[in-house]
Design a protein that fits this description.
Helix content: 10-25%
CATH superfamily: RRM (RNA recognition motif) domain
Low-confidence stretches: none
Largest sheet: 4 strands, antiparallel
Number of strands: 6
Strand order of the largest sheet: 1-2-6-3
Number of domains: 1
Distance between the termini: 31 Å
Order of helices and strands: HEHEHEEEE
CATH class: Alpha Beta
Shape: globular
Strand content: 35-45%
Length: 96
Amino acid sequence: MAVNPRDVLIRPLITEKATSLMQENKYTFVVAPKANKVEIRQAVEQIFKVKVLAVNTIRVMGKTKRMGRFEGKRPDYKKAIVKLAPGERIEFFEGV
C-alpha cells in the first residue's frame, strides 16, 4: 500500500451518527479501499499524534440511482471508525 499516511486517509466523514460517536471518543474517516486496519492505525497516529485503541472498517456499497430512464451507480467506498485512548482528542472534528 502507499507509504504516505495521507494516501490512506481520504477525508473525515461528518454525519449525524459519526457526530454522536464522537461522544464515545470514536472518529470516522473515509479511507483507501485497499488500506488495512494496521495502515489506518499508523496513519491516524502519525497525522493527528494520538494513541489509537481500535479500528473497525466497513465497506459501503454505492447506491443505484436513476435519472429518468438512465440508471447509474454511486461509487463504493471504505470507511473506518477509529477509537482513541481515553483523554485523546482530534481537534479537527471539534468545530463541527
